[in-house]
Design brief:
GO cellular component, one term: cytoplasm
Strand content: 5-15%
Distance between the termini: 37 Å
Radius of gyration: 22 Å
Structural class: alpha/beta
Catalytic activity: L-kynurenine + H2O = anthranilate + L-alanine + H(+); 3-hydroxy-L-kynurenine + H2O = 3-hydroxyanthranilate + L-alanine + H(+)
Main location: cytoplasm
Number of helices: 14
Order of helices and strands: HEHHHEHEHHEHEHEHEEHHEEHEEEH
Helix content: 25-40%
EC number: 3.7.1.3
CATH architecture of the largest domain: 3-Layer(aba) Sandwich
Shape: globular
Keywords: Cytoplasm, Hydrolase, Pyridine nucleotide biosynthesis, Pyridoxal phosphate
Amino acid sequence: MKDQFQIDPEYPKLLDNNDPLGQFRQRFFLKEDQIYMCGNSLGLATKDAEECVLEVMEKWKENGIKIWTVEDNKYYLYSRNLAELMAPIVGSDPDELAIFGGTTINIHQGISTFYKPTKDKYKILVDDINFPTDRYAVDSQVRLKGYEPEEAVKVVKSRGNFMEEDDIIDAMTEDVALIFLPNVYYRTAQVLDMEKITRAAKERGILIGWDLCHGIGAVEINLKKLDADFAIWCTYKYLNGGPGSSAAIYINRKHFKRLPGLTGWYGNKIETQFLLRQEFDHQQDANGWQIGTPNVLSMASLEGALRVINEAGVPNMRKKSLHITAYLMYLIENKLSNYGFTIGNLREDSRRGGHVCLEHDEGYRISIALKARGVAQDFREPNVIRLTPTALYTSYQEVYKIVDILLDIVKTESYKAVGNNRNYVV
């Protein structure tokens, strides 16, 4: 049933008073003079994360090198501990997950593991609108195998700003060895039908991996049901792990005996790790895909954040996200449509992620004017202001206020005072 929203300024107060996730706002560091709408890029700090980081600092101060052996080797085995917290969020077994590195290095790890080109089957299938780091990694990997991207990277063209699943499936020809796609697109918030695409890949004998960076924590994911070969994701967006917090990789257990494309000492069996042999003794679960020593301070903030996510529950977060973004779109249509604003994302709940794509010809300058008014959001070329009412810490009253600020900016044309010189980070 379609949501029946009201334009009345008192209405968002009613929504906030009946928000089952409203209590979680107090678990985040919110600023009184700011409305934070950028959780799709970097989630806010949780008080739980601060507590975990300070605990690690105390352990380090007290124990020095012995930090690796406290609490039954908790920090030495930190990836395994965090995997227990991550598994319910992605619907996998804990031993199919490893927490380490960063998004791009984990993409390299996944591609180098599963891309084994032959004379007849040598192409990697990608799209043309994904976040570019994925393409940079794919191009790099095919070069390492002696190919040029022009011959070995098969690009499915989008239709306008969106991808069609059938176009992806039609491109699954016999020369394709591997597919790598995002489940949610960073610019348009489009959600791909992962099950349909993965099923088609398996029917054709093609290995498939997924980039979950813009979906993890915003949409429901069940990797066990999906049965893809691998997946990677960052943890600093909707998971609130902190700036550059350690990324994650999923390795389907049917591939545990594969040798990782990139091997390092932390992928060695823990029983023989400190024997320091020159031959790699592969830990045959996802932990075997780790490379170097864990970044404990980064992982500590993630531990605290994951506690909050699991307490709230991703299904509950998804329900709130769909509702509050629908409310935002309702307000945009009823208050801003006469001022050059349009909505650039798909409307169906099953096809949109956690952010709203507000489009305007003066999007960049309006985005900067919004920041000056205390609204944290970001801009993506050529005309998109990305607004993310995050389930755990954005209120309905804040959503209402943002639309009023936008209305004031365009009515007064205050954005015209903003120059067109781009900042490094927008």
